[in-house]
Amino acid sequence: MRRDLCIPLASIHPSIHQVADSVLAMDTSSDGGPAASRGKEGGGVNGDKDSLRDVIDQIHSVTSRMAAKTEAADLQISDADSNTEACVSLAARLSGLLETLTDADSTLSNELAQIPPNTQNKERKDGDGRLVRWLYNIHDEASKAVYLSKAVSAGDGKGSQVGASPAAAAAASSGGASVGVFGATAAAATHQHTGSSQDHGRPCLPGLPAAVMGTMGSFLTTIDNITRLTRVNKETHQKATDSTYGVFRHFAVTKDEEGKYNNIPKLRGVKHLGKIRTAHVEASRVVPCVAELLESSSAGLEQLHVADGEKVRWQDDTAPRPPGDPVPFPSLTQLDIQSQKWLKHISQRRWALPALTSLKVDSPSRFDGSSGSFTRLVERSPKIERLEAGFIHFGDDDWPNFLVALGGCPHLTHITGLGIPGNQLDRIKELKEALNKHWAKQERKGVRKKLGFVVSSTMIHADCRQGAADLQGISEWAAEVSCELEWRPFGDSLTVDCSSDTEEASCAPDGLYGEIAKQLASKATEVRLALGGTTLHESWRDKLIFPRASSLGIEIKESSSGSSVVDSIPEWLTEREGEGEGATSRHFPAVEQLVVSFGELSFSDLPSAPSKLSRLVGGLAGLERVFFSDLSSASVACELLSYLSVPRLSEVEIAEPLSHEWPASVPAEWSFRSPPIERLVTAPLEVDPDQWSSKEGVHLFLQLVSTLRPSRVDLTAILHDDELEGEGEGEQGDDASRLLQAARAFAWECNDRVQALYTMTGGSCEQVDVEQYRLTMQLAAK
Fold first, then answer.
1. Is the dihedral of CA 624, 630, 633, 639 positive or negative?
2. Residues 541/514, Cβ–Cβ less than 8 Å
3. Nearest alpha-carbon partner for 316 in 295, 350, 288, 296
4. Angle 707-609-623 (CA atoms, 0-180°, nearest 5)?
5. What domains can you pick out in the chain, each with its CATH number?
6. Where are the residues of the annotated region Disordered (predicted)?
7. CB atoms within 10 A of CB 113
């Protein structure tokens, strides 16, 4: 027994519900049941109404076809040639037609307003306000039979299909994004009044045009399509599995569906998936069934996107499939592989990509072998035009192979994300020689090209003459072959090295090297300033400006004196723009976080303010957070905080200093010059699990709290058992209990030290190891 199902389209996609509501609207007869199919019968009142309806339907058909044509034309405009004269001429002719259509629209509105109103109310509001529609009279068997016959015809797989407009069909067959509501309505309406006279009694899946069915499938994953659309009825099954418009031209796997595909042992367990055009896969590893499905659709697959899964593992526990014979993908033009595991799989399976024009990858690396896989894909892609990556890291062994592969890519115009170590800029000359095989040809010189480099180990230091020499002639070559050069720092990080022992700083290069430094500085979001050696030359002043840098780290060379640290700071790096308290650092206008690592530099070694150090730090007008990661004493932190000119700090984080020394007389400026601090916190234990591991260290932190007076305090300390009282003979369990009690007593002792200024809002004491106890305290200022 066949059972036809009618699924509410609103549950599939809102726009499809609108299409059905306008195209497949239900008529009602005088008794409230569904009206008979509209034919060409005439005479009487119904005949007059039918003739009027036919005229209106014909007008609707014409306007719908016009709407579909304008939608298709709108899609063609972006791909049309830029012929200004032809476009202006066509626009002038269409403007005249627009005036005619506007007049016709106004006339139509006036005429339609003359339709007599319906005096019979076929819909009523129930007592709770719900809308009720009269379907048929349950006491009239003839009325019931008419309604049921029409409802069945709507779901009958043998009924004639509703055709699609050329625009909708073209969009769906090309794998386009979506079909507009108006275009789909136009398509259905066109066929309704030019093809079969059979009506659909209510909106349901079998009544959808095949092209709209295919577009609807793009809103569902492939498993959803298999379990839903193919099981409605025969006609819907035929449309869903159609090779031209069907839903299985698009293949989609989400992360939560990975397990379902892992449970499919053989490809024959999945039907209808042999003609995939586009595929989007999200998986943490190479799923054998999915990989086999893609290869079974190799003849027609045009686009493939593989997203990287959340699970990051260097080793994949999936047994690799044997290489076998090369697998040709003659139609695949776009390949986007963000998973290193899939990249290696495609390489091992020896996919041949004769039509591939665009290859995007994440960050192939020599460390896991994925850079070699990337090179092998380039070798098998003779028509490749664009190679894009986040960062491609080639080792010394992989680099020559990549250059050889480029020799077989005559159509290549774009390479981005190419990793270049800062100390191996001579690789760019080698790249130039490899690309010149094609780029230097006369017919290719005028083609626009681009090379995007990611410079790792990015460091600007006092002597850059060797780097400038490695780039000699590259700018001239790029201009000759119409190639744009782009540079960005790896990890958006850059180091300004003023800690070297170079006797004399050289001038900043003016050529390509200087331009590279300028681009890297403008794109860096994290800057590290190393002090204690030779300062940079004055000529770097206008090249090293960091408008995007949100984090600045200042560190010193080991065993540096206070004077050598200050002397190594370039004078131009302390310049400010603006006047008064609002003056901002010219070179670091956007810094929000300062990370300080001064090592063994003592408080007595710090120069008295004002100095180049105080002017540098004081110019950070947007500063919000400070992290003291490595200090000789807490006094150094207090002194540096007194240099700041910001109105407040949201957070100050400090690791345990090397020394617990604290001055007998605290300088008054530490209190009144330091900005108000919202939150003072001990550094996370991930930075150093052994920090704040003594009572003396905790007492020092509380000295900081009393001096700086933050609004809130978060203290976490790991105390060893030899720091706690309560040790004694007996069972280990008894010792642990006494030590835990001693840790709690110490917590209350700490509270007593600051209770005049703070209220303890939270805290805990717990044993985290055999010999370690974690103490936490949260304080709020009174």
1. negative
2. no
3. 288
4. 65
5. 1-76+134-210 (no CATH), 254-412 (3.80.10)
6. 26-51
7. 7
Q: Is 324 left (phi over 0), alpha (psi -120 to 50) or beta?
A: left
Residue-wise DSSP of 332-352? --EEEE--HHHHHHHHHTTEE
Stretch (H or E) spanning 84: helix 84-112
CB 300 within 8 A of CB 277: yes
Which residues, at least 6 apart from 422, have a Cβ–Cβ distance to it below 8 Å?
Answer: 455, 456, 457, 458, 459, 467
d(CA 377, CA 288): 20
Say how far apart CA 68 and CA 76 lie, in whole Å. 13
Q: DSSP secondary-structure letter at 571?
A: G
Phi, psi of 91, rounded to the nearest 5 degrees: -60, -35
Instruction: Give the contacts of 549 (CB within 8 A, at least 6 positions apart).
Output: 524, 525, 526, 527, 588, 590, 591
Q: Tell which residue, 374, 389, 377, has the closest CA to residue 351.
A: 377
Helix (H, G, I), strand (E, B) or coil at 598: coil
What is the per-residue pLDDT for 170? Answer: 39
Cα separation of 154 and 200, whole Å? 5
Q: What's the token pair of residue 681?
A: 């916190």
pTM of the predicted model over 0.90: no
**Alpha helices, DSSP H, located in 673-713:** 695-708
Residues in the chain with pLDDT values less than 50? 1-45, 121-132, 151-202, 269, 311-319, 726-732
Question: For residue 610, is the peptide bond before it cis, meaning its omega torsion is within 30 degrees of 0?
Answer: yes
The residue type found at 251 is: F
Strand partners, 307: 282
Rounded to an integer, what distance in angstroms lies between the CA atom of residue 660 and that of residue 646?
Answer: 28
CB 420 within 8 A of CB 392: no
Using a 10 angstrom Cβ sphere, with 0-12 exposed, 13-18 middle and 19 or more buried, the burial of residue 11 is exposed
Whole-angstrom Cα distance, residue 226 to residue 213?
Answer: 14
Nearest to 412 by CA among 397, 401, 422, 402: 402
**Residue 513 to residues 520, 522, 595: CA-CA distances in angstroms?**
11, 14, 29
Rg (CA), the chain: 37
- The closest alpha carbon to 338, from 385, 366, 305, belongs to 305
pLDDT at 309: 64
The span from the first CA to the last CA of the chain, in angstroms, equals 80
Burial class (CB in 10 A: 0-12, 13-18, 19+), 10: middle
The confidence score (pLDDT) of residue 6 equals 38
**Residue 236, SS3 per DSSP:** helix
Neighbours of 112 (CB within 10 A): 10
Q: Helices 210-217 & 14-23, crossing angle to 10 degrees?
A: 160
